[in-house]
Amino acid sequence: MRADVFTLFPQAFDWYLSQVHVRNACERGHEFHLTNYRDHTPLSHLQVDDTPYGGGAGMVLRIDVVCAALEAVFQGDAAHVRDQRRVLELTPKGRQLDDAFAEELAGGDLVLLCGRYEGIDERVTHLVTDRVSIGPYVLSGGEVAAMALLDAVTRKLPGVISNPESVLSESHSAVLEGGAEYPHYTRPAEFRGWGVPDVLLSGNHGEIDRWRALQVRKG
Ligand code: ADE
Prior knowledge:
The protein contains eight helices and seven strands. The mean pLDDT is 94. It has helices at 14-17, 20-27, 63-74, 99-105, 143-154, 164-168, 198-201, 205-218, and strands at 2-7, 31-36, 49-50, 60-61, 86-96, 110-114, 130-133. The protein is elongated, with a radius of gyration of 21 Å. With 219 residues, it is of the alpha/beta class. The site of adenine has 11 residues, from strand 5.
């Protein structure tokens, strides 16, 4: 997977990109690239946004700036970038990210367009394959949403998480039929009077599997 993130705040990704599973992914040949729209603006004074036509609050990220950044990275018409890869706009108006959507995105090359302020000029629809929301609330920009999406997708790449079983049986995965994962406990077995279910200490793996399946069904 090659992921290209376009943002006005590339430094917001420093922590995320230093995480061990991202480093694992890079060691396996996956690539993460950050592009600052501002570095490619064709406008003077490093301008990237403008006031909305029709009036109203806030600023809108300009479509000519988004196109210039895409064209600088992909060396071709911005409208054709989506012929080769999924181009995703992070926006509260998008299709909500869930496990199945993350699975669908894993493995292919991705372009993530982060908006700020009032978002990106609506003509971004000529550039994207998908508009993606991480939930029914409005964030100050697409960066946090882009990191959530990258994290959900990167975990699904083979070899990125050292124990592949843990990815398969995670909450909301198909193995659990979309349900929540069973609860986990670790030492100490008794703490401040709070115990651990006896079955988990029994060593009987058949019973443990049945108990866990029951917890998943209970939700
Ligand atoms: N940008 C602002 N809010 C967002 C959300 N909920 N999901 C994705 N991108 C966003």
